[in-house]
Amino acid sequence: MNGALKELLDLLDLEQIEMNIFRGRSPEERQQRVFGGQVAGQALVAAGRTVPQDRHVHSLHAYFIRPGDPSVPLVYTVDRVRDGRSFTTRRVSAVQHGKVIFTLSASFQVLEDGPSHQAPMPEVPDPESLPTFRERLEKLFGPMADDFHRRRPVDLRHVTPLTWEAARDPSLTGPESKVWLRVDGELPDDPLLHVCLMTYASDMTLLDTVLLNHGLAWGDKKTMGASLDHAMWFHRPFRADQWLLYAQDTPNASGARGLARGEVFTREGELVVSVVQEGLIRTTGA
């Protein structure tokens, strides 16, 4: 297990300071705001801590309201909205400096049988045949790759072009992005932990799909953005420490907002997660 993953697991291990109140922190590194996937993952941990273990999260809907301050703790308050016979609903608010910066509603369900179908998995190369994210950056930026990459808890292997590649070569732009991912280390058999880590990882590349379609890239000195809302549906069990294909596309961008969708498949072709996110994307003439 690499150090970045160990630190992420520590970040997800929230401190309970009162009934329905938890405290989390951010990584000790220079960043202007808290990563959205971190807040969503921590909020889901807080919700899950108040739910019986026989109930598993099947959906979440979240709003990013204000930028998070990485220099101070995040306080998560959990509202136990409903405890029914089959479903449990929780609402979580993340608070900093006395203001709500993020809200999440999550629904949990007991295991039940029913009809089953799914969309097919796209045909893509195996992850082992693809260069690592670090190798792709080194090919692009050479010695300057460190300016664009830090040690990550998630191993990413892009099937489709990186946004920086498409920014240099307009022929590589397009509305679809596919990436293999897995956390960089073996995890314990805790279903909630695997779901929370996928929640974290789901925010790493989704808005990139919008940028890819326009030849834009974070760090190009003309593009800025932020997650606005995020929704996920968990269809089937999975492990975040095994390869998962994240197939993403963007159906629309307008009004300085971009919409992106994602489907997550196991290596065996099972559809395990669906994701939708809208993000703010502003550009300048720089």
TrEMBL record:
Keyword terms of this UniProt record: Hydrolase, Lipid metabolism
CDD domains in UniProt: Thioesterase_II_repeat1 (cd03444), Thioesterase_II_repeat2 (cd03445)
Domain annotation Acyl-CoA thioesterase 2 C-terminal: ranges: 176-280
Highest taxon in the source lineage: Bacteria
Pfam families noted in UniProt: 4HBT_3 (PF13622), Acyl_CoA_thio (PF02551)
One Gene Ontology term of the molecular function aspect: fatty acyl-CoA hydrolase activity
Catalytic activity from the UniProt record: a fatty acyl-CoA + H2O = a fatty acid + CoA + H(+)
GO BP terms: acyl-CoA metabolic process; fatty acid catabolic process
Acyl-CoA thioesterase-like N-terminal HotDog domain mapped to chain residues: 31-109
Keyword check for Hydrolase: yes
InterPro entries attached to this UniProt entry: Acyl-CoA_hotdog, Acyl_CoA_thio, HotDog_dom_sf, TesB_ACOT8-like_N, TesB_C
Record-stated family: Belongs to the C/M/P thioester hydrolase family.
Subunit text: Homotetramer.
Protein name according to UniProt: Acyl-CoA thioesterase 2
